[in-house]
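I had to read the description of the data format several times before I understood it. The format is easy to grasp once an entry is in front of the reader. For illustration, here is how one protein appears when written out as sequence plus structure tokens:
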Amino acid sequence: MIKSLFPTFIYYSPLISCSPKSFNNDLKVEALKFAEIDLAGKRWSSKNYRGGYTSYGSIPHLHKVSTTFETLESEINKHVYKFAKHLEMDINLKELKMSSCWINIMPMNAAHTMHIHPLSVISGTYYVRTPEDCSSIKFEDPRLESFMASPPRKHSAKIQNQRHFSLEPQEGHLVLFESWTRHEVPPNNSKKDRISISFNYDWL
């Protein structure tokens, strides 16, 4: 008998079912406007997000300054509660609150190296624009540092036996994961900007 123990779950879904293109376009317009006027964010990005723009270092609470992003928060809440239920967290789901929310704009060759979101519970990204050949989001097996003499896995191995998993995002979709899950965004191969909105939920 073989049991599958200690799995790492990744949640992926369309954000909304009605008028997603209209709402997504509103987010895109607003994200590009922030990138245009956010001088502090441009300065922070030039040092910490080479080649791209993020509001992480300047306006990391967009859901508190924009009604469009406030609406985004209310839609994401529904998915976060579903995911937390699946994880069987022994908490009041209403205590999970969006603590930060920021824009990422990645032109060609921009990348985001492997990282986690410390001190948060659930993190994720909503995809505003994903042109053809743009970057996937790549997840790493959290046990990787403990493998030592473990042989590599076959290229054709099942997803649950792979050391890494890449998810090719679609516009209007969001991905959720527990905040300790290591992930990265490899260099964008598209000539068009990849636009996303990332966020953290804390247990408040």
About this structure: The CA atoms of residues 56 and 185 lie 16 Å apart. The chain has one domain: 15-142+160-203.
